[in-house]
């Protein structure tokens, strides 16, 4: 591990994740006041009910207030929400899908990664540490028709668990790229196996994890967005068998359908894995995550 990577701080990744989210236009939903009122009342009602049920004290209330202030000061609202809330939003948004299971986006997606064709290597350092991984597959419709020209965006942590643009010292687009499926909907991506990811422990989210006696780990994962015109965007993560945190992901984002089956490469250098994607036809406007132009725009 380089010393720069060692110095990654919650405040750095938090500030980056906050800025990245604010850059994403179209995130504001046009929600009618009656719905805002209902949702706000129910959330506050759940808080009030918890306070009554457990006789929450003034010192506990003040600890909560200090902690919430700290989440803002550390720039950790994106991290907090994506770890402990997003998985249920994703579950509800995609419950009607018949194709691939998706999962949370998390805080570290950056649009407009380098375009790399149907076959290629993610941008990486000359001495990029980690086990080489050749990841290939095909994108199809529910009926099995190949989706030529489908976009596959891939972003991931390095072999030390750090994301480019959110941890210091990494090249801008390290381990981030956008592939375009060939005439048969196929793609092949050379990368490395990511490490398990530890959510930052030196900020407010880390304080909650240690105060509650939880652990801060996510299992190793590849992040993907797969899109094609006329189809719903699929935001997913793929996991590796045997990871100690597949069963207790702090962000609750692992699904059995998303665990890969890598095999040793025949030439002995690293691993190969095949994983196919099936996209659902476009659903009603508003059902999907806002602010994602890649399905129609490219
Ligand atoms: C967080 C980080 C991730 O890489 C991810 O996939 C989900 C959440 C986080 O730090 O909040
Ligand atoms: Fe991640």
**Element pattern in H and E:** HHHHHHEEEEEEHEEEEEEH
Rg of Cα set: 20 Å
As for the number of domains, it is: 1
Cα(first) to Cα(last) distance is 37 Å
The CATH top-level class label: Mainly Beta
What's the average pLDDT? 91
Estimated structural class: alpha/beta
Q: So, CATH architecture? A: Sandwich
Number of helices: 8
Bound molecules: 3,4-dihydroxybenzoic acid, fe (iii) ion
Number of DSSP-assigned strands: 12
What are the segments in which pLDDT stays under 50 over at least 5 consecutive residues? 1-6, 290-298
Largest sheet: 6 strands, mixed
Overall geometric form: globular
CATH topology-level name: Protocatechuate 3,4-Dioxygenase, subunit A
Pfam family, one: Dioxygenase_C
Family: Belongs to the intradiol ring-cleavage dioxygenase family.
Cofactor: Fe(3+)
Keywords: Dioxygenase, Iron, Metal-binding, Oxidoreductase
Description of the structure:
With 298 residues, the protein is of the alpha/beta class. The protein has one domain (1-298): Protocatechuate 3,4-Dioxygenase, subunit A. It is built from 8 helices and 12 strands. It has helices at 3-6, 10-23, 33-53, 58-73, 77-84, 86-93, 204-212, 294-297; strands spanning 119-121, 132-141, 151-156, 176-180, 186-192, 197-198, 217-218, 221-227, 234-239, 263-264, 271-274, 277-279. The strands form 3 sheets. Strands 1, 2, 5, 10, 11 and 12 form a 6-stranded mixed sheet that branches. Helix 4 (58-73) packs antiparallel against helix 7. It is globular. It starts with a helix and ends with a helix. Mean pLDDT is 91; it is low at 1-6 and 290-298. Residues 135-163 form the Intradiol ring-cleavage dioxygenases domain. Pfam families: Dioxygenase_C, Dioxygenase_N. Its cofactor is Fe(3+). Keywords: Dioxygenase, Iron, Metal-binding, Oxidoreductase. InterPro entries: 1_2-CTD_multi_dom, Catechol_dOase_N, Cchol_dOase_actb, Intradiol_dOase_C, Intradiol_dOase_core, Intradiol_RC_Dioxygenase.
């Amino acid at each position: 591990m380089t010393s720069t990577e060692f110095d990654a701080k919650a405040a750095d990744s938090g500030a980056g994740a906050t800025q990245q989210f604010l850059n994403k236009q179209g995130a504001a939903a046009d929600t009618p006041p009656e719905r805002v009122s209902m949702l706000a009342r129910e959330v506050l009602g759940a808080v009030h009910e918890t306070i009554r049920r457990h006789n929450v004290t003034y010192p506990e209330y003040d600890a909560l207030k200090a902690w919430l202030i700290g989440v803002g000061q550390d720039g950790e609202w994106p991290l907090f929400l994506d770890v402990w809330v997003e998985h249920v939003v994703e579950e509800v948004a995609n419950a009607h899908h018949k194709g691939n299971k998706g999962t949370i986006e998390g805080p570290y997606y950056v649009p407009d990664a380098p375009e790399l064709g149907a076959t290629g290597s993610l941008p990486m350092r000359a001495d990029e540490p980690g086990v080489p991984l050749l990841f290939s597959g095909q994108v199809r419709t529910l009926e099995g028709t190949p989706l030529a020209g489908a976009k596959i965006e891939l972003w991931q942590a390095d072999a030390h668990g750090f994301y480019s643009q959110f941890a210091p010292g990494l090249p801008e687009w390290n381990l981030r790229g956008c592939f375009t499926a060939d005439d048969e909907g196929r793609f092949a991506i050379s990368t490395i196996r990511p490490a398990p990811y530890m959510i930052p422990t030196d900020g407010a989210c880390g304080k909650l994890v240690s105060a509650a006696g939880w652990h801060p780990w996510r299992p190793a994962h590849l992040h993907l967005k797969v899109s094609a015109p006329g189809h719903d965007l699929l935001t997913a993560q793929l996991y590796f068998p045997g990871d100690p945190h597949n069963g207790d992901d702090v962000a609750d984002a692992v699904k059995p359908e998303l665990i890969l089956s890598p095999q040793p490469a025949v030439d002995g250098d690293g691993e190969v894995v095949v994983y196919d994607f099936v996209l659902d036809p476009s659903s009603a406007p508003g059902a999907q995550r806002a602010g994602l132009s890649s399905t129609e725009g490219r």
